[in-house]
Design brief:
The structure holds 2 protein chains of 2 kinds. Chain A is mainly α. Chain A contains 4 helices and no strands. Chain A has one domain. Classes of the chains: A mainly alpha, B mainly alpha.
């Protein structure tokens, strides 16, 4: 919930099975304010979902330094040769 | 998109081979992932990336610096990739179904339907997950390679290479909604892989 956006009524109940499917929209900031309030009310009370969210965040953070697939060395060599060979 | 280094790009345009090699190494992994979501095989994706770089070299003198150099390079890439691309049969399996095994939640006749079963709730990975960083990375690297192509493309571009959602939609020809669904499913699958490994 961003400051100034107070829910006008008690947030609806969300079951864990539904909450786990809302977390990316929640993290992306695209949930409507009522839904944000419902997600946060659930997270305040539910240890399992709190752990699940923490694990999603840990996963995303770790992805920032995962080594990923790239071109083969021969492809790099071909590109460098093309660079050297281009007309000046 | 991560910031680009104008000095490095200036050197490339002046014909500095080291600058070219550096940029090719920095950008090719993300380019390969974009290409791979348009074509069927790794080999054709590699061809697409090479062809895109060759196209960049051919028109380098025509680049006027009005757009970001990276935006220009990726636009060339997407054009090449679309030309090589498959006639889009979209695989809906990448978009549908729950991301957590429904058996982990209580049944409808339970007083708390849809809530975690006591014996199936996520277990803590420990107080200092940063201690596990090397293990995290190894598991994630393997799990990424096993994701369906479009999930992998979205997760790598967003979470590994730092592109924003809008850029990913343009590069992969996705709607915002589908981009988020693919991101969600990919991340959830990766979290599950770590869970299997760590608990």
């Amino acid at each position: 919930m961003t400051p100034g956006e107070t829910p006008r009524h008690t947030p609806r109940d969300i079951a864990c099975i539904e909450l786990v499917e809302l977390l990316t929209d929640y993290l992306e900031g695209v949930l409507p304010p009522d839904e944000v309030a419902a997600v946060e009310a659930h997270l305040d009370l539910c240890e399992g979902c709190g752990t699940y969210l923490a694990q999603m965040r840990a996963t995303i953070a770790a992805l920032g330094s995962v080594p990923v697939e790239t071109l083969s060395e021969s492809a790099y060599d071909d590109l460098l040769a093309a660079f050297r060979g281009r007309p000046a | 998109m991560p910031a680009e280094d104008p000095q490095l790009i200036g050197r490339l345009r002046d014909g500095d081979q080291v600058a070219f090699a550096t940029i090719v190494r920095q950008w090719s992994p993300a380019m390969l992932r974009v290409a791979r979501s348009h074509v069927r095989t790794h080999a054709s994706a590699e061809e697409v990336v090479q062809e895109a770089w060759l196209g960049v070299l051919r028109s380098l003198d025509g680049f006027e610096g009005r757009a970001q150099f990276r935006t220009w390079v990726f636009r060339i890439l997407v054009n090449v990739a679309r030309r090589h691309g498959r006639a889009d049969e979209r695989r809906n399996a990448e978009l549908a179904g729950p991301t957590v095994d429904p058996a982990r939640f209580r049944d409808d006749d339970d007083p708390y339907p849809g809530h975690w079963r006591d014996d199936a709730a996520p277990a803590d990975w420990g107080p200092e997950p940063e201690m596990l960083a090397a293990e995290f990375r190894a598991v994630l690297g393997r799990a990424l390679a096993e994701l369906p192509e479009r999930q992998r493309a979205v997760v790598e571009l967003r979470d590994v290479h730092g592109f924003d959602g809008e850029e990913v939609c343009e590069l992969l020809d996705l709607t915002q909604a589908n981009q988020r669904v693919l991101l969600h499913r990919g991340r959830a699958r990766l979290r599950a892989s770590l869970e299997e490994e760590l608990t």
